[in-house]
């Protein structure tokens, strides 16, 4: 089990920079998710940690040991691929036992270890089957078995649930987290699915265009996004932005968008007049007739216990999450009231969050 | 007829299925396949039959379909004979073997074995040797092109292909001069190198397609699990590329087995292969057609065997790229 440290890691392919100067530390036993849209460099980072790709610059430390240019086989790390990569010419037991065989372990010992791993994953009954006959979920379990069998220092997983159907994905999410808790190994998990990251990870790194935008617990990332990108990427529907022009002074408790005054958490830094954005999560909006921000209901999406109501306001379209019992008529004019303690402010130019009381002193990543 | 078809349509829901062919379509399709088979197999059958004809039956007009079979063609193919007077033959001790007897009926005696066996051995060595080399080199090159970032990879691949665009005979004279300088004319090594050079371009292109289809995650998993690159190639990639390798091997073998122009130009004695040998099987008063047919029959056998042995892979191999798994 190990701590993984990344220092100034950079990777470029010809003209294109896939990862630009990442710095972070993953503590021993952490379930660490790297989340971002495709092409953001999360998989490249993972492959560099595994040794399948060599960095252009920077260092990778495993338990304090520099492994930047060490061969993949010598790093004692296991990798789980999106397409499982089970060897099609071997059966399940041979697939799981493969890494041990590579190390030259005796056949009897291999069999014993494979048995034990299979028991842990509850796939003992599949050991002699062909991998091509397995369902997606079972293939994933076999792939996990192959990763676990030699007790590696860390697990690296590249969208391991991406190839499963939604139903299975949910089930495997639970199993993966459960497995992580039982084994206690450091896990780095790459995904573009925020639900997977939010439900499993202890720590999430949100990446965009090769940069890490924010690292934090799922709650921190959701409640106090460090940038407009994070705010927009996390949450479904994403955070609403009301853009306005204005300056801010430390201690301000309200802003004016056109002529509407909106209460906000106390501002903790000074800002000269610049394009700014007010960020509101859909669930922090209520319909109140007296509210200064008004608009016409454009549509409603029924989701069972809640509904997503979109409202056209003078400042853009806003999505609100309301209890599904709330009566909504399309075209009706409504007033929007925001939960003032939970609002976020962003500088549109840099995309970064402006420090407010809501941040609870947290730093940007 | 049309009424019957119209009536049966509503009853059978698959009548217009895009998956299931209608009975008529099936009949037309099998008719075409049978016709094609007859057209391609008939000449082959004619050759096999001609090998069992006598000299006069072979050139009879109109052609004889029914004839008295004889092994003369095969005997003539494998032996060198001399004509003798009937008196001389009468004085000889009685023939020891059935082929001695057969030859004496025509007032001839066997003077020794013909060169067909060494020529056949040459063909086997050169054909399979160059196929092995081309597939071996092709696999390594294709793997490299498929997996590594090679500067100018596309240009290099096109350059490799361009050696195939040009008809090989266009460079026959330079190659002849080069080979003479290097003492490679009329050697098996020379022919193996030449056929390998021609085949390797085909092998690289075909195999690159196959290896591209094998997800690289397989090797990467093996690399993470403790294999070196070469071990991963041998134990993980190659078993999955078997289909492609078999298909490529067949194409390479067919080329080097049948190659005629260079064989005529560059071999005469030692390293001569079957293709230049067969047309020059001369009997009394010109071409010995039954012997030529016998040689052709034997010449076709190895490639048929090889193809039949690998046909399972070949079928999947020829449709490569068509199906995404």
TrEMBL record, chain A:
Keywords, ordered alphabetically: ATP-binding, Cell membrane, Membrane, Nucleotide-binding, Translocase, Transport
Major localization class: membrane
Membrane topology field: Peripheral membrane protein
Listed Gene3D superfamilies: 2.40.50.100, Nucleic acid-binding proteins (2.40.50.140), P-loop containing nucleotide triphosphate hydrolases (3.40.50.300)
Domain of life of the source: Bacteria
Function summary: Involved in beta-(1-->2)glucan export. Transmembrane domains (TMD) form a pore in the inner membrane and the ATP-binding domain (NBD) is responsible for energy generation.
Family listed: Belongs to the ABC transporter superfamily.
Protein name: ABC transporter ATP-binding protein
Organism of this sequence: Bradyrhizobium lablabi
Lineage start: Bacteria, Pseudomonadati, Pseudomonadota, Alphaproteobacteria, Hyphomicrobiales
From TrEMBL, chain B:
Organism: Bradyrhizobium lablabi
Chain segments annotated as transmembrane: 27-49, 124-144, 156-177, 189-207, 236-257, 289-310
Alphabetical keyword list: Cell membrane, Membrane, Transmembrane, Transmembrane helix, Transport
Localization of this protein: Cell membrane
Residue intervals of the ABC transmembrane type-1 domain: 120-310
Protein family: Belongs to the binding-protein-dependent transport system permease family.
Mode of membrane association: Multi-pass membrane protein
UniProt xrefs under Pfam families: BPD_transp_1
GO biological process, one term: transmembrane transport
Signal peptide annotation: none
Cellular component annotations (GO), alphabetically ordered: plasma membrane
Protein name as catalogued: Sugar ABC transporter permease
């Amino acid at each position: 089990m190990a701590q993984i440290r990344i220092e100034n890691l950079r990777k470029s392919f010809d003209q294109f920079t896939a990862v630009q100067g990442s710095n972070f530390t993953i503590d021993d036993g952490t379930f660490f998710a790297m989340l971002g849209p495709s092409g953001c460099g999360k998989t490249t980072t993972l492959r560099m940690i595994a040794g399948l790709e060599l960095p252009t610059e920077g260092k990778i430390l495993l338990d304090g040991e520099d492994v930047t240019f060490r061969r993949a086989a010598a790093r004692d790390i296991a990798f789980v691929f999106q397409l499982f990569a089970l060897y099609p010419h071997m059966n399940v037991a041979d697939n799981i036992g493969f890494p041990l065989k590579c190390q030259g372990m005796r056949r009897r010992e291999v069999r014993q270890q494979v048995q034990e791993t299979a028991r842990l994953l509850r796939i003992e009954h599949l050991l002699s089957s062909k991998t091509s006959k397995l369902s997606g979920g079972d293939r994933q379990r076999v792939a996990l078995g192959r990763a676990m069998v030699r007790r590696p220092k860390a697990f690296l997983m590249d969208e391991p649930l991406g190839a499963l159907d939604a139903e299975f994905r949910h089930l495997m999410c639970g199993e993966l987290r459960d497995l992580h808790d039982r084994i206690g190994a450091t896990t780095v998990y790459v995904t573009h699915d925020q639900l997977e990251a939010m439900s499993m990870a202890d720590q999430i790194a949100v990446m965009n265009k090769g940069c890490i935008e924010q690292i934090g617990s799922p709650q921190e990332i959701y409640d106090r996004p460090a940038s407009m990108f994070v705010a927009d990427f996390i949450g479904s529907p994403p955070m609403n932005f009301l853009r306005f022009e204005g300056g801010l002074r430390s201690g301000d408790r309200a802003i004016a968008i056109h002529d509407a005054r909106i209460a906000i958490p106390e501002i903790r830094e000074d800002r000269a007049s610049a394009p700014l954005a007010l960020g509101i999560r859909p669930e922090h909006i209520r319909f109140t007739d007296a509210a200064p921000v008004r608009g016409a209901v454009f549509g409603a999406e029924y989701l069972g216990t809640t509904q997503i109501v979109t409202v056209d306001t003078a400042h853009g379209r806003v999505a609100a999450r309301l209890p599904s019992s709330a009566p909504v008529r399309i075209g009706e004019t409504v007033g929007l009231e925001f939960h003032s303690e939970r609002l976020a402010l962003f500088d549109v130019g840099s995309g970064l969050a402006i420090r407010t009381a809501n941040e609870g002193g947290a730093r940007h990543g | 007829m049309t009424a019957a078809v119209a009536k049966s349509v509503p009853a059978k829901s698959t009548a217009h299925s895009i998956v299931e062919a209608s009975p008529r379509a099936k009949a037309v399709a099998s008719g075409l396949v049978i016709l094609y088979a007859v057209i391609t197999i008939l000449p082959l059958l004619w050759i096999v039959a001609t090998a069992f004809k006598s000299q006069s039956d072979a050139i009879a007009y109109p052609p004889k379909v029914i004839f008295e079979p004889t092994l003369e063609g095969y005997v003539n193919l494998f032996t060198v004979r001399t004509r003798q007077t009937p008196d001389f033959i009468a004085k000889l001790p009685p023939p020891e073997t059935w082929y001695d007897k057969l030859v004496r009926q025509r007032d001839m005696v066997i003077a020794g074995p013909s060169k067909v066996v060494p020529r056949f051995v040459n063909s086997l060595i050169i054909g399979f040797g160059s196929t092995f080399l081309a597939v071996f080199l092709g696999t390594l090159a294709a793997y490299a092109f498929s997996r590594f970032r090679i500067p100018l990879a596309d240009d290099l691949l096109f350059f490799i292909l361009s050696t195939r665009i040009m008809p090989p005979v266009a460079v026959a004279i330079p190659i002849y001069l080069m080979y003479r300088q290097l003492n490679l004319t009329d050697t098996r090594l020379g022919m193996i190198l030449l056929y390998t050079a021609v085949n390797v371009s085909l092998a690289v292109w075909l195999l690159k397609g196959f290896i591209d289809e094998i997800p690289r995650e397989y090797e990467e998993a093996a690399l993470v699990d403790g294999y070196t690159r070469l071990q991963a190639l041998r134990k993980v990639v190659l078993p999955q590329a078997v289909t492609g390798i078999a298909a490529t091997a067949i194409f390479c073998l067919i080329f080097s087995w049948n190659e005629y122009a260079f064989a005529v130009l560059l071999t005469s004695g030692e390293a001569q292969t079957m293709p230049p040998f067969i047309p020059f099987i001369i009997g009394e008063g010109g071409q010995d057609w039954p012997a030529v047919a016998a040689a052709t029959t034997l010449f076709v056998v190895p490639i048929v065997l090889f193809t039949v042995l690998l046909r399972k892979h070949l079928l999947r191999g020829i449709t490569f790229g068509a199906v995404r798994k």
